[in-house]
Amino acid sequence: MSVHAPMPPAIRPANPHFSSGPCAKRPGFTLEALQGALLGRSHRASKPKAKLAEIITRSRDILGLPADWRLAIVPASDTGAVEMALWSMLGARPVDVLAFESFSEAWATDVLKQLKLADARVLAAPYGQLPDLQAVDFNHDVVLAWNGTTSGARIPNGDWIPADRAGLVIADATSAAFAMALPYDKLDVVTWSWQKVLGGEAAHGMLALNPRAVERLLTYKPAWPLPKIFRMTSGGKLTEGLFAGETINTPSMLAAEDALDGLRWAEGIGGLPALIARSEANLAAVADWVAHNDRVAFLAADPAIRSCTSICLVIAAPWFVALDHDAQAKAAKKIAALLETEAVAFDIAAYRDAPPGLRIWGGATVDTANITALLPWIDWAIDRVGADETSAR
Fold first, then answer.
1. What pTM was estimated for this model as a whole?
2. CA angle 221, 226, 227 (to 5 degrees)
3. Most Cβ neighbours (<10 Å): which of 62, 151, 341, 346?
4. Residue 3 — pLDDT band, cuts 50, 70, 90?
5. Which among 276, 309, 253 has a CA at the least distance from the CA of 55?
6. Which domains does the chain have, with CATH numbers?
């Protein structure tokens, strides 16, 4: 059976980078922006240390972090920041873990199988949905992802979290920070990395602690040994230098300069409100396209919980829906590969554990014009792969 292949669109995105991490560099970025990097210097010397401290200061200012919160640069990206919190603070109380995509599922695995906390429960939901937030017990410590990077579902607000909670709320905000308004009065630990909304390079994480989290560190000693890179106290006191740019291990001063470039760009366009507006505009462009399209749908069906950064789509074309799961997975990869071959979208296949589909990064460094230019190409790629699939039958 022969099916006519569609013609490709005429307009291409000016920037085809839609990866969900590391993410697109800020508009106008060139390597010239990194000329001030203090390469070949010790990160403990005064000038390099001042650069690291500047990252902390600018980050907390843009995010509106409360004055009594501590903020540190830590090893191993957001993963390292979350692990530091889990291994240093959990065990003092029962634990509730909200698991609704791959990374929050990983935190559940840590709690149950690595830390082996007996008094722990997992509140789970399928990709694209959220667990029952009303079922959370705030006498427990709570571990959650604020935004499901691999599912496209986000926590809409902090109204469900009581201000007088007994336990700590530990929030993995790696794909939420700088793109969503985080309710710091309802959170105790917040983590993120340089590689997401501001488009920084990988390997470095940020760990923010409120006074309740600091008190936990000072008054609770876990039953297990802590590796050096997890330790935030010494001799019963907080390691203050950690929150002033004295990193636990050696950071990349090139990546640090890149992080500063992204922060300065964010300040220059209007700070957090402008960053949020750019991300929400990207989601709105995709939502308008989906609303008039029978080829795709949002993985997160409820508009109230759709992410404006990791925009996850399932393919709804009849030819695709008729396939079994394995065939769908192969077809979705073909669609993503075709877009990459055409150099209109790099790295937008759904995460390996997520349902087959596509994932478009809509963070603040992505111009809405590039999203708008990409969407007809997705239509074209779905139709092209569909024509090939139909011809092969």
1. 0.97
2. 160
3. 151
4. low
5. 253
6. 31-266 (3.40.640.10), 271-392 (3.90.1150.10)
